[in-house]
Amino acid sequence: MNIKFILNICLITLVCTSVFSQNVQPVLKNPMSTLYLKKEIKKTLPRIVYTKKTVDLVKKKLKKDPVLINMYKAIQLNAANIYEQPLLKRVLEGRRMLDVSREFLYRINILGFVYLMEEDPKTLNRINDEVLAVCNFKDWNPSHFLDVAEMALGVAIAVDWTQNQLPKTTIELAKKSLLEKAIQKSWRKNKKWNIAYSNTNWNQVCSGGLIAASIVVADQYSEISAKTIHRALDGLPNALATYGPDGAYPEGATYWDYATAYSVTTNSMFESAFDTDFGANDVPGFMASAVFRLLSEAPSGRYFNFSDCEDFQNDNGNSSLAWFATKTGNKSFYKEESFLKAPKSMGKLSRFDGIAMLWLAQFNEKSREKLPLNWKGNGSNPLAIFRSEGEHQFYLGCKGGRASISHGNMDAGSFVFELDKVRWAIDPGVQGYHELEKEGFNLWSSAQTSDRWTLLTKNNFGHNTLTINNQLFNSGAYAKMIDFKEGESPEVTFDLTPVYGDNIKKAQRTFCKESGTSLLIVDELEFSEKTELITWQMLTTADVLITNTGAVLSKDGKKLSLENITHPNYKMSVVSLDPSPLKLDRQIKKLKRIEIRIPRKSIKSKETILKIRLKKNK
Fold first, then answer.
1. Coil vs helix vs strand at 46
2. pLDDT tens for each residue of 537-566
3. Parallel, antiparallel, or unpaired: how do β-strands 383-387 and 374-377 relate?
4. 152, 175 in Cβ contact below 8 A?
5. Residues sharing a CB contact under 8 Å with residue 562, sequence separation 6 or more, in sequence order
6. Using CB atoms within 10 A of its CB, is residue 84 exposed (0-12), middle (13-18) or buried (19+)?
7. pLDDT in tens, 171-205
8. Which of 18, 149, 494, 541 could form a disulfide with 206 if both were Cys (CB 3.0 to 4.6 A apart)?
């Protein structure tokens, strides 16, 4: 075990805990000025992620490294497919042009990397055609600035990686487009551009795209380029702080992929263009977030899919994790087997895989740290994960938090649970944004009366938690983690009281991994004058048989017992959610909600403890 690596992670965690507890935002070094830019920026191309030195490194590794050789075959297959595709057009889906921007970034990552390796005229000509097509769009849809950012990164890479070999007219058009369609669109007269200071993935994505654009046009437009990068260095810590204190990214695993891909690309751009990361790699919680990302992958192939996260993992190699592997030397982040799949089976690669070839080439194994079996992540969306690597592959993901964070749901106290690679307790996950928006649905407000909370995927009726008086959670209330115990039977406790307002006086939920085949959920409740009904609920797609003491769930030839230990007189019931309650709800085959409904008036005391056990049924 690498002691230095462990000490570094511990130091990061200690610093991060201090930062979080004091509500102090991290700060990046920010010497950026016009003078600094002119003096420190690399004078030779490429300088976005790659440099001449690192291009030579990758070329050398491509002669002998099996991972790079295999990935390059997949990249070449992707490049061949791109040649068969028509050039892109400015097509919007609703209010977004994001698919077009992402497709362009993908094409440039693939073609641009091939050109870095081979410098062949055919690839250069296609890159030229792709750049001319998008730079002749009337705009890059600045009303939805993610579209601009992803397009800007693609155009910047195209100009940089081709190293002045594109026609001069194309380079001039591209730089003009980066200035006018991207950089200048973010500067408003006498008005702060709030995206640059937000605490969501928009900050990381938009700042990353504009930094790339600024690096490319810096030779001609040094003043606005320096000003744009300076703003990003000031604002990025707001988004990076959300990884603290332990690395639990509040928007979930797939949004970690999105935001972090831009962060690690940005940090790499800083290093390649200025020989410094300005301290971005050392922000508390950021490096530790790779552990969170891996722990979010359950044995079944599903994610712990909270906060608008997708349901299933992509089994291709993960570009962002490759960066963490390179920076730490930890082979656990490298996932070598995923990069060694048959090239044809990989299909369409990530739009960051051309960039990631450098990180793969730079990897030098220093350790192979095992992932923890019991892990907690505090922060704005606190969570815990308990798991085992034995015969039954126990997996629990549970959380507190608040609904009003970016992509948040009313899911405090909720959990997903697997045993024997079967997902027994499910989260309904995410549904397509455009399909909702085109109906005039107000998806993005987190106000208590927002349309968002009518959806089963977003409200507490669609999550594995407690509901009091059939009421929605308070969207702005925060359920914190108040206890975490390690050991053979680890426990974690969340205080859910705030999310219920005055409907209950106290509600604390504890999850205990009793064994490798048994989970105990304990709810400690103290009633208020307004408490009328307590509903314990769990969503599943398994078949359910109600018994005298609870229920038996069956799926994929396996069984799970659901035992009502403390209140066996209250029979469980099953509510079918197939079809889901609303037309706009996500429809999930065989979805159902298991409920235990306990009237307050049936309990004589002012408090009660509810214990439910989920265990393997033999």
1. coil
2. 999 999 999 999 999 999 999 999 999 999
3. antiparallel
4. no
5. 538, 550, 551, 552, 553, 572, 594, 612, 613, 614
6. exposed
7. 999 999 999 999 999 998 878 899 999 999 999 99
8. 149
